[in-house]
Amino acid sequence: MTTTADFADFIDATEYDDLSEEVVEGIKKRILDSIGIALGSIGDEPVEIVRETVRELDPEGGACGIWGSDETASPPEAAMMNTALIRYLDYMDALLLPGETPHPSDNVGAAIASAEYADCSGEDLITGVGIAYEVHGEMADKAPGRDIGWDHIHVTFGSTAAACKLMGLDYEGIRNAVGIATAAYNPLRVTRTGEISMWKGIASANLARNAVYTTMLAKNGMEGPVDAFEGQKGWKEIVQERDFQVEFTPCERILEVMTKKYMAGTHAQTAIEGLLELLERDDIDPHDIEQLHLVTYESAKHVMGGGEGDRHVPKNREQADHSIPYTLAAAALDGQLMKEQYEQERITRDDVRELMGKMTVEGSAELTERFEAGEQPYNITVTTADGSEHRIEKTAFEGHPTNPMSWEQLEEKFHGIAKDAFPESHRNEIVETVRNLEQYETSDLTALLNARS
User: Which CATH number is correct for 266-394, 3.30.1330.120, 1.10.357.10, 3.40.1350.10, 2.120.10.10?
Assistant: First the structure.
């Protein structure tokens, strides 16, 4: 059975020199992608609610910057705010695992806040982010929480691991921090079911903040339940009645992460790309579609196709980006899927509602097996007004681990989403700093992120 000692062994021992060049490159890509998405969400209502709350809690500011502004906050509140910026648009990365679809970029805000607070080097930051991705991914793989009702609970472990490493906790301090985090933060899946609310895009930020706060408590001597997994009324007894054993690598989980091509939930990525390819290939006007039938793996149908609540009549942005029918309809009609497609007026317009009503989503045991073997498969059939049928089968999308985005593609995504936050010259400085992060200090990066044009 996994114990807090397993985490402490890995976090305490892992250093920058343990990481391969491929892993370091992957970590830099994840940092750049997360920062770009964060800068693109500035001004959206839920993240601005978080900003106002952080201002009330830290009226005098603190040691860490709020990205895209000249404001500062304490490490936990900066982690909260910057993670909310990363997460809200649903444009973040993900791991495609059989029982969970975790988003390890949820840990980047906590890692950078911890590194800024502790005055860490760029190498340290790379190491902390890599540790976060490894811990987050391994826990989500070995101890998935979705089907038993937990909501992205693994952010707790990833962010705590990064904060522990970057704040320099010793072995016992790490065990205490992991123990407290394991016992204290257990979010419910209701956040992502039924009538989805604003909280869907903010919940992970709350876990990141709590992880940093917990780490600071342990750093200052707070003892925790170091038997949090195996102890009486611990994880095994209360959360998951089975043994599992984490097996950490030198942060190689980072190489399994997908990058979102489209601003939509993870499970829609292949479907959107496939539908757009089909419409272009066969010269189909989306207004001529009479029926659109999708066959896919069970997780996609469950999460975004109707298994956790009707997805055909979204009422807000949070419901729309978690809907296969909406994301496909909006992409087909508009030829893109960006912030404009999630404006309230667009979500409720008749044309997109009509096309959504023509869609059906079917789960397939065969495609589920292929998903669990590493694909993200979809079979799409479009029937047009003249009665003809058009089909396409897709196994992955551009950005899937089997077809990863290049650095140049990530730069293009970064500039596209962050263009309103900073002028191009400033954005280029951010890109250059992340690209060569091992040659910089964390403060060099945060100085760029915390400036506002």
Answer: 3.30.1330.120
